[in-house]
Amino acid sequence: MSSALANQIAAGEVIQRPASVVKELVENSVDAGSDKISINIKDAGRSLIQVIDNGCGMSEKDALKSFERHATSKIYKTDDLFCIYTKGFRGEALASIASVAEVELKTRQENDQMGTQVVFSGGEFISQSPVNTPKGSNFSVKSLFFNVPARRKFLKADSTEFQHIINEFQRIALTHPTIDFSLYHNGQTVFSLPKVSLKQRIISLCGKNLNSDLIPVEIDTSIVKITGFTGKPQAAKKRNDKQYFFVNNRFMKNAYFNKAVLLAYEKLILPDTAPPYFLYFEVDPHTIDVNVHPTKTEINFENASDIFKLLQAGIRETLNKSDVAPAIDFENVEAVDLPYFSSKSEMPEMPKENFNPFYNPFNSTTRSFQETDKREKNNLENWQKLYSEDSLLTVSDEKMPVAVERKFLQIKEKYIVSPVKSGLMFINQFRAHFRVLYHKYLLEIDSNADGIQSLLYPETLSLEAQEVAMLYDLRDEFLAVGFDFNFDNFKSPVLKGIPPYLDKDRSMDVILDILGCYKQEYGNIQSSIKDILAKSLSRNEAIKAGRKLSEKEMETLIDSLFATKEPNYSPDGKPTIVVVPIEEIEKKFL
Ligand code: ADP
Ligand code: MG
After folding, report:
1. How far is the CA of 283 from the centre of ligand 1 (A)?
2. CB of 74 closer than 6 angstroms to any ligand 1 atom
3. Ligand 1 within 6 A of 96 CB?
């Protein structure tokens, strides 16, 4: 087998797409001790990938040798394979790249007068000649996969391939803040990153809004040292992609450690959200198994379960020490979102016998909900939960705002304001009521699981074909919450029964609302029909902004809010409560 062919086969493993070339070249530049690296891409790497560095460069002889397989200058004995600190470790990246593209290298070492230029194409040596070039190396990779049509065809759209390049670029840039990196695509600057601190680097790569959201992490133990940053709870988002682990300064994916971090945030963030984090592990290289495959990012740890515990506890402690609380974000107000009643000495009165936190005090036509023992019990449990270990409300006890007195003021017919020890608490009346009613309806739906109020006059629905199909697919779930349909005439299904607590007049709107939400949230396994139904009913019924409230109403609303499990958020995840700290107010007087 010719060496060109062997290289081409090896290339199949190492070089899967343009991003692989970028990764290998940039890692080499980092290893060469550069402090400035520029990357110039054309057509997502199809026509050009150029990496220019100011590192140590290569001699005439080494420049040629670097394209040989196992050319590496980095492995001396096999044992070293397990102790890799540098990036590359197989000594075949350049050989592989050269076998599937046209590669031109210009390089010069500091003390050499002249540099050297080497050209390879499809694995064949083309030429070498002296050249005038700055200190460092300048690789140009053109016509990638020109001789491997299958590979070329396999490439995705430019936007996808370029996104892969960005991912690789970010992973490297995040581990080397002291290197000046720039990335250009088709002549446009994509990133220009001067040497900075790690935090600055993170912010310039991942967004300015992280600036106030990062907490430094420092976990130092005998088996692992973990540094970097983790996000304040308020920075948590659905599908957070700003999550990075590095081990010995090498990017890794690790679902297991991700779980540890998420556990540390338990009760501080909504269950289906995740915080950003940038965590750098340092371990004895003998205790990890860096999969020798160069494109793999999974790494096995000898002490994985110990590290898991250290990580979880360490992040939790970091959060506790820093001034965070279950977090929310309220436009421009520096917000700490904290429960109202906190210290055990100032416990609110237990609800009286007839206290019903689910009673809607604002609706004069409030339907009377069948009181069930179950609900009474739930109600009590919720109040107890308020003070139990696993309540959101008991997190970081000392920092909770403590009610000064039960004084409530309504402003803009939108917010309820109340003084607390640490400042001024604002409650969004609509969102608070939305939360209270949602909670009520969830219980209501459960306790009426098999109750259906049959309609005296079944109603024929006029729906679009797509809606009928959806309704048919969901018929069992609809039935489970009390909606009974007859599909005899598939074109126009008939509504035969509705949940007992629902007004007949509202039922059509609710069904349409559910179908609408379902369309929108389709594919999101989190939302069940039950959940959507509860949201729909409560959103509709909740008092809106513009509704004037009496002192008594405000008081009841707030008590009811804090009797729910997640008083800090409305059911659609928006903050309900904001505390403006007294320091903020004092600042304004300066
Ligand atoms: P590896 O990085 O695994 O050693 P590569 O095929 O990526 O293997 O590179 C081969 C060798 O070429 C490296 O060991 C290094 O000596 C040399 N080399 C590659 N890129 C550079 C560079 N940008 N600056 C200096 N030397 C380089
Ligand atoms: Mg390499």
Report:
1. 25
2. yes
3. no
Structure token pair of residue 436: 């209270």
Among the bound ligands, name the one nearest to the CA of residue 68.
1
- Report CA-CA distances (Å) from 31 to 34, 86, 242, 263, 405: 7, 6, 26, 36, 63
CA angle, corner 368, sides to 366 and 372, nearest 5?
Answer: 140
Its pTM stands at 0.58
How many Å is the Cα radius of gyration of the chain? 31
Nearest-10 Cα torsion for 435, 559, 397, 214? 30
Q: Which of 34, 36, 94 to mutate to test the pocket of ligand 1 (most atoms within 8 A of CB)?
A: 94
- Our answer on whether the CB atom of 91 is closer than 6 Å to any ligand 1 atom is yes
The dihedrals phi and psi of 532, each to the nearest 5 degrees, come to -65, -40
**What protein residues have CB closer than 5 angstroms to ion ligand 2?**
28, 88, 93
Instruction: Give the integer Cα–Cα distance in Å for 278 and 175.
Output: 10
Question: Do residues 311 and 261 touch, judged by C-beta distance below 8 A?
Answer: yes
Question: In what order do the strands lie in the sheet containing 102-108?
Answer: 124-131, 115-121, 102-108, 136-142, 48-53, 36-42, 180-185, 188-193
Q: What is the pLDDT along the chain (590 residues), one digit of tens a residue?
A: 566 666 666 666 778 899 999 999 999 999 999 999 999 999 999 999 999 999 999 999 999 999 988 756 554 444 444 444 444 446 789 999 999 999 999 999 999 999 999 999 999 999 999 999 999 999 999 999 999 888 888 888 888 899 899 999 999 999 999 999 999 999 888 889 999 999 999 998 888 878 889 999 999 999 999 999 999 998 998 877 799 999 999 899 888 999 999 999 988 898 888 999 999 999 998 898 876 555 667 788 999 999 999 999 999 999 998 866 554 333 333 333 333 333 333 333 333 332 333 333 344 333 333 333 333 344 334 333 333 333 333 223 333 446 667 788 999 999 999 888 888 989 999 999 999 999 888 888 888 777 888 888 888 888 877 778 778 878 888 888 899 999 887 778 899 999 988 888 888 888 988 887 776 655 444 467 888 888 888 988 899 888 899 888 898 898 888 888 888 889 888 889 998 989 999 999 98
Q: Which structure tokens are listed for 466?
A: 């797509």
In this structure, what are the phi and psi dihedrals at residue 120, rounded to the nearest 5 degrees? Answer: -125, 150
Cα 285 to averaged position of ligand 1 atoms, centre (Å):
21
- Closest Cα partner for 29 from 242, 216, 172? 172
Name the residue of 72, 97, 140 to mutate for ligand 1: max ligand atoms within 8 A of Cβ: 72
For residue 376, the 8-state DSSP code is: H
Tell me if 89 CB under 6 Å of ligand 1.
yes
Distance, CA of 254 to CA of 299 (rounded, Å): 8
